[in-house]
Structures are given as structure tokens and as C-alpha cells.
Amino acid sequence: MEKSTLIGIVLGVAALIVGMILKHASPSALLNPAAFMIILVGTTAALFNAFPMSELKKIPALFKVLFTEQKLPAKRELIGQFMNWASVARREGLLALENTSDEIEDPFLRNGMKMIIDGGEPDFVRDVLNEEIHAIEERHQAGALVFSQAGSYAPTLGVLGAVVGLIAALGNLSDIDALGVSIAAAFVATLLGIFTGYVLWHPFATKLKRKSKQEIEIKKIMVEGLLSIQAGVSPAAIEQKLLVYIPFQERTDMKEEKKEEGAAVNG
Q1: pTM of the model
Q2: Any long-range contacts for 24-31 (C-beta under 8 Å, 24+ apart)?
Q3: What is the pLDDT of residues 61-94, one digit of tens each?
């Protein structure tokens, strides 16, 4: 489970409730059915007007992505794997990797490995894999855009809810005692609109974009690794080439670990 999403939601709700208490506002004021109707149903209606059904059907899957920890191969392990494959390919040829390709779990990497084993031209292999990466990015951007737009609609609908509440409050000025309560209730919709927009929907869109970026970066490592194996590049050169995808500090740590391992072997 993606704990950060759950923690973010809990902290956001807690901040709102505790903040209201500290401001001497009753949290029970949030229990306003009309406000929830305008914000939640109104935002949903806006999304139906903005996106085709084919994209809206993916919303449950997007929530699953938000609450599920992303399972991606570690970059260091992936680089090590490419170095091992490069060693085998240089000693025995690309066909020696044929059995290995059937054991690869990642469909993108398995497809790329089969293409280089089958003797596909490097430019063709690169074009096919890059087009697949582009298609993945397009799908991810479409999913993030749904939440991004929801984050834009919700605060504006909050203003609409406040206007509706003020109309109701000002329509009955004879009861002065109830007027203050009515005006306060009118702004609950604005509060909910801003909260859902900037604590939920916009951050959800950002998280989807970040997860997409991490996945695409792994895919790019795979493309460069596969093409390097096909070109007969040495394992050391592959490592040097792919290390650019790893943060500098982590690269430094890897070098230190290698030095320690070498010292232990020599010792």
C-alpha cells in the first residue's frame, strides 16, 4: 500500500478539523449535505462534461495506482542485470540470451530483448520502444489530467455553493438570530471546495505524474541497456552509460561499496 497517500489524507483532514477547533469553529459545521452535494456531485458533473466516458472509466484504476505502492525494479539491480547479460552476449552471442528472455517478467523489457535477439535493426528497435514509452506517457498524462481538472473545478464550485447559501440566508432577514448561522453555513461549500481541490485532487494529479516519471525513467534505462547489449558494448561501458540515471550521491555510494568489496576480496 502507498502509505504516503493515506498519511496525506489523514493529516489533511486532521489539519482542517484541529484548525477549526483552534479557531473556535465547530467541526460539526462540515456536516452540510447541501455543500457536499454541490462540491462532490458538481465536480463529478464537470468531469463528465470535460472527459469522454472511455477516460472516466479508468478513474477506479487511477485510485488503485494512488493507493498501491509502485513496483519497479531498482535501478542499481537493473544496471547489474544488463552488465551480466552483456557479459553473456559478448562471450556466447545474443542467441545465448534467448532462454533468458522468456524469464523476464516486465513485458516492455521482454519485448525489447526478443527484438534484439531476433536481429532487429538498432534504429527500428529504438523507434518501437520509444513509441511505446510515448504511448505510456500519453496514457499517464490523461489520467493525471482528470484529477488536475477536478482540482480546478472544486474551488470554483465552492464559490457557487457560497452564493447559493447567501441567497438562502439573505432571503430570510426577519430572523436575525439565524442569519449568522446561515451565512456561516454558506461558506462551508467554499471550504470544502478549496480543501478537496488543493489537498486531494491537485496532489493526486502530482503523485500520478511523479509515478509516471519514475516508470518512464526505468523504461529509458531498459532501452539504452538493450541497445548497448545489441551493439556489443562492454559491461563496464554499459555501467558507465546507465549510471547517469542514478543520483550523484548514490553513484558515489556504489563506488565506495565496490572499493570495500574489492578490499575484502584482496584481504
Answers
A1: 0.86
A2: 29/184, 29/185, 29/188, 30/188, 30/191, 30/192
A3: 999 999 998 888 888 889 989 999 999 988 888 8
